[in-house]
């Protein structure tokens, strides 16, 4: 019988429905990474989330390890090259969360542009004293504005379709041109022309701190940057400086360099920034679909069948 380590309970009953496999769950309150290190030696498979670090040391300890199934679309928390070199299969959960994540990203863009969170706070704190006023709470126009998309993968394509619904002029930059209803431009042109810049880049060594001060300085002073994919593609220190100095107008962020965000992070005090706690895929249906895929990847990997979504390089 195969032994499988499970670091977190997942939505739905997919884990409970697994037959013929010894499921070993992490005790509540125990650190997931420390628990994996203690128990990986006899594990044939692991079902993890993006919070767990699967590095060379842990992989070496997992001498029986056959499959790593991560409940996420991102996999930068796994030493993929080393795991594949060891013959370990790696499953992940793309596609099923694309539309849900794009909904959230477009939503926080609207919230930042139209100052929705700021307005909600004014009403709740009884600070709305003037009634309707022609110059009160003026925001940025979204309909007909220029949307710039960095990275035209699944999420970028989903953002494009939503932007078209708002009659936005869509431009994009990507490593390769795509057959999409948007205009490909060099990076600098996308930065200079975008009213709303959507960061939809995969995270890797080439995209770490991709958005930094030199790039912010090429953007419009009225522009907003939106990130709901990978926190570390933005140099957060430079972003804070750009927002404080008026180099750009605002930001909408669902992901951050460090999560959870530190209580002393200056972003928390900025009215021109909308912040959400990494909830891009957080709907009941999507999280259940992710669990179904993650469990199927695990079972298939142990039984020698093709994974539904497998990372290969």
TrEMBL record:
SUPFAM superfamilies: Formate/glycerate dehydrogenase catalytic domain-like, NAD(P)-binding Rossmann-fold domains. CDD domains: GDH (cd05301). InterPro entries: D-isomer_2-hydroxyacid_DH, D-isomer_2_OHA_DH_cat_dom, D-isomer_DH_CS, D-isomer_DH_CS1, D-isomer_DH_NAD-bd, NAD(P)-bd_dom_sf. Residues 107-280 form the D-isomer specific 2-hydroxyacid dehydrogenase NAD-binding domain. It comes from the Archaea. Belongs to the D-isomer specific 2-hydroxyacid dehydrogenase family. Keywords: NAD, Oxidoreductase. PROSITE patterns: D_2_HYDROXYACID_DH_1, D_2_HYDROXYACID_DH_3. This is 2-ketogluconate reductase. The keyword Acyltransferase does not apply. GO terms for cellular component: cytosol. Pfam families: 2-Hacid_dh (PF00389), 2-Hacid_dh_C (PF02826). Residues 30-310 form the D-isomer specific 2-hydroxyacid dehydrogenase catalytic domain. One of its GO terms (molecular function) is glyoxylate reductase (NADPH) activity.
